[in-house]
Amino acid sequence: MSLKSFHIVFIAISALFAFGLAYWSMAEFMSSGSMLLIAAAIASFISGFALIVYGIHFLKKLKHVSFL
Q1: Does 67 reside within a domain?
Q2: Rounded to 5 degrees, what are φ and ψ at 34?
Q3: Which of 32, 56, 62, 64 is exposed most, by the fewest CB atoms within 10 A?
Q4: Phi and psi (nearest 5°) for 65?
Q5: pTM score, whole prediction
Q6: DSSP code of 62?
């Protein structure tokens, strides 16, 4: 696995974890009402979207580099 492939997989998994944390934070917020959890959910959503944008930018920047 090339470094480019690993980087793309790592970014995708990180984005999934960020959205998973956002989902969990929202679920916990619904049961407890803690404002800290809603802040964590918002931060996680923003991080997940930022990771997706970064991944797209990374792919465009290195489109001439092969995956092998």
Answers
A1: no
A2: -70, 130
A3: 64
A4: -90, 130
A5: 0.84
A6: T
Please answer whether residues 15 and 52 qualify as being in contact, where contact means their C-beta atoms are separated by less than 8 angstroms. Answer: yes
Residues 6+ apart with CB under 8 A from 28: 34, 37
Q: Between 2 and 22, where is the model more confident?
A: 22
Domain count, the chain: 1
| Rounded mean pLDDT, 25-32 | 94
User: Which conformational region is residue 42 in: left (phi greater than 0), alpha (psi within -120 to 50 degrees), or beta?
Assistant: alpha
Structural domain contains residue 66: no
Domain that holds residue 52: 3-61
8 A C-beta contact, residue 55 and residue 18: no
Residue 16 lies in a domain: yes
